[in-house]
Amino acid sequence: MTGRRLTDFKEGMAALGWKEGANYVLEERWAEGRMDRLRALAEELKVKKPAVIVAGVGAVIVAAKAAPDVPVVQMQGRSPVAAGLAASLARPGGMVTGVTNVVGEVSEKYLELLLAAVPRLRRVGFLADVKSGGYEGHLKNARRAIERYRVEAQFAQAAQPEDLDPALSRLVKEGVEGLVILPSAGMFIAERSRIVKFALAQRWPVVAGPSTFAEEGALISYSADSSALRRRAAWYVDRILKGAKPGELPIEQPTKFEFVINMKTAKALGIAIPQSVLLRADRVIE
Questions:
Q1: Sheet-wide strand order for 53-56
Q2: Which candidate in 35, 126, 159, 214 could, as Cys together with 221 as Cys, close a disulfide (CB 3.0–4.6 Å)?
Q3: Out of 7-11, 23-27, 80-84, 90-94, least confident range
Q4: CA dihedral of 70, 76, 80, 83, whole degrees rounded to 10
Q5: Tell me, what's the pLDDT at 259?
Q6: 64 within 8 A of 72, measured Cβ to Cβ
Q7: CA nearest 140: which of 163, 107, 115?
């Protein structure tokens, strides 16, 4: 957990009466988008014998396998049930609990929102992370949206940061007019500045999930309120540290979603976003 993610979690802990360095110690590890590093990082944490591991996206799976006797709180990501780490949302039954941001279900709206903001688009590129746990599901959702809105689509895949420039360059050759960034195991978030900069150089309007993409310059972002999820993860840690069993704490799905529009990007790209779309936004970056 880095940056704002870590701040949100600490704020959640503080609100529950936990003071870092006084009654709890936080050991940080991050993969910086390199999923191949997760196993080694999980092993490092296991040696520390933590009371609980807090993780997001694909890190939950690795942590659960590396330290099967340690409670794991998911801070965001797809359902642990889909990953085979919990029996059900209501009764997880194992060592994994926490919150999910239902990225798979939400990602089907990406194309809808992009076309609502920029109706002229006819040829759209889709960037997919092949190491995302829900990769096949994300592609299925994307194809369903493509069929519904009848646009021409081109797909590019990446498995590691070095794949991004060649993947995006292929989309340039295919003549796409906008970019949909499908949910990632973490790499796209870590590399968001580079992805958005490349897209803007091509004058592509971009839609992605996490609000950090819109803050970086993507035209639109739409996802569960990540800050709220991270603060809620602190509640699970609090319960576990006070003796609760993770398998008895129901996994929660988000109830609040955030639709962000970057008007600075819209103006730079000469896009006049319809007023009806602006009125739907939860936040507009001026």
A1: 53-56, 72-76, 96-98
A2: 214
A3: 80-84
A4: -110
A5: 96
A6: yes
A7: 107
- CATH number of the domain at 3-102+226-255, out of 3.40.50.740, 3.40.50.2300, 3.30.750.24, 3.30.110.30? 3.40.50.2300
Q: What tens digit of pLDDT does each residue of 41-95 get? A: 888 888 899 999 998 766 777 888 888 999 999 998 778 888 888 999 999 999 9
Rounded-to-integer distance, Cα 261 and Cα 183, Å = 18
Domain boundaries, the chain: 3-102+226-255, 104-223+258-285
Fold equal for 3-102+226-255 and 104-223+258-285: yes
Q: If you compute the radius of gyration of the chain from its CA atoms, what whole number of angstroms results?
A: 19
Q: What is the mean pLDDT of residues 254-265?
A: 94
H/E stretch holding 62: helix 59-66
- Identify the helix (H) or strand (E) that includes residue 55: strand 53-56
Distances (CA, A) of 98 to 153, 185, 234, 250, 276: 35, 17, 9, 8, 35
What is the structure's pLDDT at 1?
45
- Is residue 9 predicted with pLDDT exceeding 60? yes
Average pLDDT over residues 18-43: 85
CATH superfamily for 104-223+258-285 is Response regulator (3.40.50.2300)
